[in-house]
From TrEMBL:
It comes from the Eukaryota. The gene is Mybph. Keywords: Cell adhesion, Immunoglobulin domain, Muscle protein, Repeat, Thick filament. Residues 1-16 have a biased composition (Low complexity). Binds to myosin; probably involved in interaction with thick myofilaments in the A-band. Transmembrane segments: none annotated. This is Myosin-binding protein H. Residues 30-53, 112-121 have a biased composition (Basic and acidic residues). GO terms for biological process: cell adhesion. One of its GO terms (cellular component) is myosin filament. Residues 124-219, 320-415 form the Fibronectin type-III domain.
Amino acid sequence: MTGKTAPPAKKPAPAVAKKKAVPALKGKTASKEEAAPKEEAAPKEEAAPKEEAAPAPATEEPPAPEHPLEQPPVPRDKPAPIAKEAGAEVTPMPAEGSPAPPAEPSASAPEPKLEKPREEPPSCPLSLAVEEVSENSFTLTWKALEQMGRAGLDGYVVEICKDGSSDWKAVNQEPFLSTRYTIPNLSSGDKIHVRVMAVSASGASVPATLEQPVLIREILQLPKIRMPRHLRETYIRRVGDAVNIMIPFQGKPQPEVTWTKGGQPLDINRINIRNTARDTIFYIRQAQRGDSGKYELTVQINGAEDKATLDIQVVEPPGPPQNLKLVDVWGFNVALEWTPPADNGNSEIKGYRVQKSDKKSGKWFTVLERCTRTSCTISDLIIGNTYSFRVFSENICGLSDSAAIASGVAYIEKTKTTYQPEKIPQRDMMEPPKFTQPLTDRTTTRGYSTHLFCSVRGFPQPKIIWLKNQMEIREDPKYIALIDQGVCSLEIRKPGPFDGGVYTCKAVNPLGEASVDCRLDVK
């Protein structure tokens, strides 16, 4: 074989090797990636473990000669040898016509275990703020959570840390549910970082932290008394009542409270004083009139002070009026007078109540209420009765316990009177006749009776004369003349054509005469 023929014989071998080696590598990769059994690499995956069980020793390839050697031709009925690379696994190909080995089932991946959903911890507390700071403590407040989670809320935990340190310490031993907490036993001048966490069965929330540390020092506040509105006026109580007054004030540090009356300390045997950091309580178990007066309250801090005055008035019912007497009795009336009571009950007298009693019934009836004067007149008494009188004084507590009774009694006598008729002067009533309503012209129908009317006045009563066509009508049954209360009437019964004409009514008395006329037409 010449050098020219060797190369063509050498070319097909590596081509076959490359074509068969590639499926072998692909088969190994497919087994790791769990390839489907339809691929050609499935039978090769079965043979792969056998090869791994007894692997062939790796052979080093000799260096290629400068001139390639001639290789015998590969017979067509035998498969060409496959080049084996170092470290590569070779899977034998099945012979032609032989059945393919069964595909090895791919290794199933392990099923993932179902884990229970983890419960979320509660949300962070809201609006954390400092409410109050004193010389050895401070108070925190915050708002409730937005979300508490399924497990609910066990409470809150408060932790503190000094400025410059990272050591957080819990202040409360067990969780609590209040949204307000006071951290005590701190040193004045320290700067304290603080945070609050919500705790439940599912864990702790994200802590709510103050942006700036809290400086432990007492905030100075000037003293000020906040006198209630109803105590700015005179505080009135009855004798025997309890006096219990609370007056709030403000100031930091806690102010010094002092009570005095007229510049003198109070009698602790009668008056109890209890002071707190925010108010003072003034208490008297049973008030007496001697407890009345003005009390001075002083609240002082290091020279700064505020003052207020409490005016207490202890009152009781007044005494009865004095020197009640009957001044006069006339007709149906009685006049009384008295003087104010000796004891007004430590209150202004608002008036007097006057009562009367008649001897027959013996019952007392009120005649006047709230009479502001020390005298009065009682009227409309009944003739023949004998009356007694009494007077009560009245102040803000009410009526006096007893009344002043008049020493005498008032007897209303029957007065003897004689009837004397009043003399009425005689009035001159004389008057000549005068017609107040004249006659009026009329038209009547033949055969129907008709009337003529007029009215006249005069004293003495005038005489009435009727005329027809200036002729006096005398006793004629056709005519009926009447006069009643000054109204004159003439009835003409069933007049005919000859009854028409001028009719005249004449009134005559000693002082004169008067007349009126009218025309009557008969159709």
